[in-house]
Predict the structure.
Amino acid sequence: MDTAKDLFSYRKHWAQRFGIAPILPMSREEMNELDWDSCDIIIVTGDAYIDHPSFGMALIGRVLESQGFRVGIIAQPDWQSAEAFRKLGKPNLFFGITAGNMDSMVNRYTSDRRLRHDDAYTPDGKEGKRPDRSVLVYAQRAREAFSDVPVIIGGIEASLRRIAHYDYWSDKVRRSCLPDSKADLLLFGNAERAIVEIAHRLAANEGIKDIRDVRGTAFMTTNIPDDWTIIDSTDLDQPGRVGKETDFYCNPYASKDDCSEQTITLHTRPRGLNRSRTVLRLPSYEKVKTDKILYAHTSRVFHLETNPGNARALIQRHGNRDIWLNPPPIPMSTRELDRIYELPYTRKPHPAYGDARMPAWEMIRFSINIMRGCFGGCTFCSITEHEGRIIQNRSEKSILNEIETIRDNVPAFTGNISDLGGPTANMWRLKCKNPKIESSCRRLSCVYPGICKNLDTNHEPLIQLYRKARKLKGIKRIFIASGLRYDLAIRSKTYIKELATHHVGGYLKIAPEHIEEGPLSKMMKPGIDAYDRFKQLFDQYSKEAGKEQYLIPYFISAHPGTTDEDMLSLAIWLKSNDFRLDQVQAFLPTPLAIASAMYHTECNPLKKVSRQSEKVGAVRGTRQRRLHKAFLRYHAPENWPILREALKRMGRADLIGNGKKHLIPSWQPGEKYHGNGQTSQKKRYQAAKTRFTQR
């Protein structure tokens, strides 16, 4: 893998003389208190400004401040005009635009496309403080405010919309957000490396149009340099042909078993080509907009070009211009990540918000992020597209120091750390055993369909971290709340024992997602046998510790590849295991995710795409999505009518009745079984639910 310049090795910008701001300013008055006449960089965000490393605007802002730049924040501006974007004056270098910690459409709408009534990233949880597709709106308003100032977009929304993508909310393929935003550059992934290099180059009077070689960036172009070789992606992974072909993408370090059709690990290129001067041309926006086979093909190639060790540049035509995507950024070293998280955050909301409640901050204020990235590769998840598959670890010392910082400085701390985690709780320090293999591999998951033999799954460092954290003075409990990868955990009985004995507060959330092979294969999730083994060990060690503790499983409904029969099997499994779920998750197609490509195209990009290849059923329409969700909450009386209708249609009326073997009762609240009919509807509902759950 290529090396990268150390993030903190740059010579600091001259404005470092102003020192460190107690908190990054959001007003001219605050700038005056700091003796600033202007900001070098202004970050515009769709979230309220919370000066905590879990919030993107604070992390990027403090990283830029550490380089000597003066950084201002415009949080949740009124987007109806450009006036709010002038409040801090004209930035000397650029506007940095982000929708916030979430894609604005995911933030604002449910999986049923209904408007949400709250926003965890807004004071008092109020809805309506950000526009749809915030990156586009904010970037255009910033351009209106100061037309000669460079505009750079980034964050999760820009990352997931960096090429032509299926947009669930409009039910169509949309262009990359780069041309629509009219921004100069798009930064994808965790963008510290890119944003710091760009800031220093702009400060050195380099033009924004001349910055074209930074990893993790995308830009519009009409010119492909003469010394670059263009390879059409359809020549590498030809859509439409059937049968065995030469696979230019086979990993030379993978075993035969590792190169299975389901987990294809594309790698090599035609001989004689210099990867660093090779660009893959993806099918154009105009083609993928109308041709679903080419869309699925594009999704497949895109994801197979995400390893920083071997990824090539990508281009995709939009009209008469190309979007050029440089390879992904080089992962952070432990030293760099430590310094990022040790910057002088106040760890609190900006004082301008007064006593307003901040739901997102309240949820994470006593938690610690110990790593980045995830090599699980779940097709419905956006972590891979944003943070990548290579785990980036903080050091044990840095993590323990942060616990002490919370203990000593965060108001209302009672001695309990709510989480030591990240995208996945138990991937800290897990990595490929061989750097050469890691840099060449294109496998989409290190743990599906089985755990790769080259993956180091040693949990001992994490166990030692937990033990040292518990011993710190003033710390009562360390909870683990991040999602746990149980197929990895069962490799270490000691880890499960440590977890059950010390780090669970009665309930542990875990995500099998389904029990049937059909949907699991489309999710790239392990079979239910791994869950059963984990549960057995968890129950055993909880009992040995004298604790009554339970697993709370999470399942997903309406995922591509899921049939009504699959959901019925899951409902029967839930009932037989005495699970009655209150909160369930319906599949929401997010931009760029592989599962979203399945939903849109009904093809499987996990395999070679052709016009005769495997078809994936997509759960569409309000009624069918409601039915799949109802199977997960089979015990709720409001779901019984639709379930009765479905069971009869499926020939499973034998599951309707009033005995323990039945899935749903034959009666409904309000019928003669519930007395004189004078009881309120709410009481009838509760009585029905109680009667059903006591069977």
In short: The first strand starts at residue 41 and ends at 45. Residues 1-205 form a domain with the Rossmann fold fold (CATH 3.40.50.280).
